[in-house]
Amino acid sequence: MTAPAFTFASVGDRARGRWPEILAGLGIDPAALRNRHGPCPGCGGRDRFRFDDREIGRFYCNGGGEPVSGDGFALLQHVFDWTASEALQAVAQSLGMDSTHPPPKPAPRPPTKAPGPSRLAAYARETWLAARKDDAAVGSHPYARRKGVPWAAGAGRARASGRIIGRDSDCLIVPIRTLVGKLLAVQAINPDGAKQTFGSMGDGCLVLGNTLDARAPWIVAEGWADCASFCFHLHRGNAVAVVAFGASRLQKVAEAVAAHYAPPRVTIMEDAP
Ligand SMILES: [Zn+2]
């Protein structure tokens, strides 16, 4: 074990005042990051949660009877079930604090031959945590380039191993979350475009764009690349595109999005046959 290059004090200093963007970048729904009671991005409910200090990322959640509160690091632990050091590492990474001289990041160990659901969920989480999430890294992945998406667009890039994607493959990593931002699974896409999902998707999806703008066009489509193009290329970010991760999931995800956000309309974009 080597000593960590950063501490809660040093990372907290750099994070001061930037918590909303940091937390949103790590996958917490920006709509929850307001000083107003609402559903908790970690444990749901209707109005148990508020985010009342962007300086230190302070939140309060009454947890349905078991109150929990703290700073931005504590919020990440509450929402994603991370340990304190996982939260510290994720924030440091999102601030670029450990990428100036990036240490060789060990690829998470691949699942064993017959991985159980919790093992796959853990693998999904480790992979997402280890992924680089900046535009340069993600946008230069061969799949992203081929699809004409030169930005991160909510995805990451990391090494992953699996039956479909191959061993220790340089993958685009697309997070699959609940509508309140909890990571359920990841879809790994290798340079050839082969896709493999780790973790259990449930009703998960990936919401891209500005969910605070109900007048923007809202669509649900199958894959990450189409959604990223629609949202950021066609509409310059003034749109919401939700990745359903499969044709058979379009309807279910569209219904969940309509119920959760209540935009005027949600359009399902089917792939051209
Ligand atoms: Zn909560």
Automatic annotation (TrEMBL):
Residues 95-118 are annotated as: Disordered. Residues 101-114 have a biased composition (Pro residues). GO terms for molecular function: DNA binding; helicase activity; zinc ion binding. The lineage of its organism: Bacteria, Pseudomonadati, Pseudomonadota, Gammaproteobacteria, Chromatiales. This is DNA primase. Residues 35-73 form the DNA primase/helicase Gp4 N-terminal Bacteriophage T7-like domain. InterPro entries: DNA_primase_Znf_CHC2, Phage_T7_Gp4_N. SMART domains: Prim_Zn_Ribbon (SM00778). Pfam families: Zn_Ribbon_Prim (PF08273). GO terms for biological process: DNA replication.
